[in-house]
Amino acid sequence: MHYQIDLDPTHTVIRLTVTAEIVSLEIAEDVYYHLSRFTSSGGPYAGIYDLFLTKDTTIPTDIIRRFARRPPSIPLGRKHVVVGKEPAIYGLARIFQMCREALGGQVQGHQFEVVHSLKEAYDILRVCPEHFTQRIFPTALAA
After folding, report:
1. Cα distance between residue 64 and residue 118, in whole Å
2. Nearest to 88 by CA among 123, 69, 64
3. Main-chain phi, psi angles of 131, to 5 degrees
4. First to last CA, the chain
5. Could you tell me the residue range of the domain that residue 103 belongs to?
6. Which residues in the chain come in under a pLDDT of 70?
7. Domain count for the chain
């Protein structure tokens, strides 16, 4: 499996951790499906999209722009933070962020941030790694 989804049930924060070094369109669509399915009930959720281990993607920039125009996999209402260490991943996340801002103005823009480290994401959402105690996908208990 190229990713896992965990939940902090106390703070209602979802953390997606992508373990693939290269993210393909297939992985991105699979993530979108599973996150959307889980978040269709409950919430509102804040989200961490941890792409720290990802080095590159085969997804073209125009597809990233299209992704920004579709309904988010985790509905907006609370902060979403993307972690991208590698310049290509960080840059594409920023393109996604700018496209989202263009769609929804400042209010939506402040709900989506891009950072370089997981610690920054945890600090923004005021959570800790040990808070993520429920494994959502693949189904199992988080360690």
Report:
1. 22
2. 64
3. -75, -20
4. 16
5. 3-141
6. 105-110, 140-143
7. 1
Beta-carbon neighbour count of residue 45 at 10 Å?
A: 20
pLDDT tens digit sequence for 43-82: 899 999 999 999 999 999 999 999 999 988 998 889 999 9
Q: How many residues does the structure list for the chain?
A: 143
Using DSSP's 3-state secondary structure scheme, residue 42 falls into coil
Closest C-alpha to 131, from 51, 48, 54 = 48
Q: Which of 49, 11, 19 is nearest to 131 (CA)?
A: 11
Model confidence, pTM: 0.91
The CATH number of the domain where 35 resides is what? 3.30.750
Omega before 44 within 30 of 0, i.e. cis:
yes
Spatial distance between the Cα atoms of 103 and 69, rounded to a whole number of angstroms: 7
Amino acid at 99: C
Which residue do the tokens 């896992």 mark?
A: 4
Three-state secondary structure call for residue 1? coil
Beta bridge mates, 74: none
Backbone angles phi, psi at 19, to 5 degrees: -105, -10
β-bridge partners, 18:
3
